[in-house]
Write a structure and sequence with these properties.
Order of helices and strands: HHHHHHHHH
Helix content: over 70%
Shape: rod-shaped
Largest sheet: none
Distance between the termini: 60 Å
Number of strands: 0
Structural class: mainly alpha
Strand content: under 5%
């Protein structure tokens, strides 16, 4: 491995740095973007129960905010519990945009890594081929080791760049889709609660007679 890195030249260093950073981001996002951490089950039904029983006070709202991103979205609406549906929904939408931004944390960096590592590999290819043509110019085509060194550098950096970029791009697409899914789920859950509070909908947890 060290021999390959040395053969690939100095451009292997930023490619390796990108690979380490991409692995760290993927691990952190896999841990953070778990369903039970973002949109806990039964949170909407529990919140409705508190509202129905007139136990939704400032302490309960604080607990909601500390619970999860969905809890913070619900809390934003419940702070305006005694206002109109429009005001509650505006508060929910503002909180939802803020939480969506938080869920997208580090994804731009991951997308950038997926975009630049092939370019770094391509740059290594160009530098390697320049060395090859330089060796041909000065020593002719008979110096096989000099030609092989430049070609190896070109191929190794290209392969390394693609090796980092492909999983980074897959992870970026996966996490982006997951964030979109969670944002839609939070919006739907918040809408259920707001409409139940306003008497415009069957209360959460009772849609099927539950």
């Amino acid at each position: 491995m060290l021999e390959l890195i040395a053969t690939g030249g100095w451009l292997m260093l930023p490619i390796l740095a990108c690979s380490v950073l991409a692995m760290a981001i993927i691990g952190e996002r896999l841990w953070t973007l778990q369903s039970h951490r973002i949109v806990p089950r039964h949170l909407v039904a529990r919140s409705w129960s508190l509202v129905r029983d007139r136990r939704m006070d400032s302490d309960e709202i604080l607990r909601l905010r500390e619970d999860s991103p969905l809890g913070r979205v619900l809390a934003a609406g419940l702070v305006n519990l005694h206002h109109s549906r429009e005001i509650m929904m505006e508060a929910v939408e503002d909180a939802g945009r803020h939480e969506a931004h938080g869920l997208e944390r580090f994804l731009n960096t991951l997308g950038t890594i997926a975009a630049i590592t092939p370019l770094l590999g391509l740059l290594g290819t160009v530098i390697g081929m320049i060395k090859v043509f330089g060796a041909i110019t000065t020593e002719g085509v008979g110096n096989a080791p000099a030609l092989a060194g430049g070609i190896s550098e070109a191929l190794i950096t290209t392969a390394a760049g693609l090796t980092v970029a492909i999983p980074a791009l897959i992870a970026y697409r996966y996490f982006s889709g997951l964030v979109d899914k969670y944002v839609i789920a939070m919006e739907q859950d918040a809408l259920k609660l707001v409409e139940a509070v306003q008497g415009q909908r069957v209360p959460p947890g009772q849609e099927r007679g539950g």
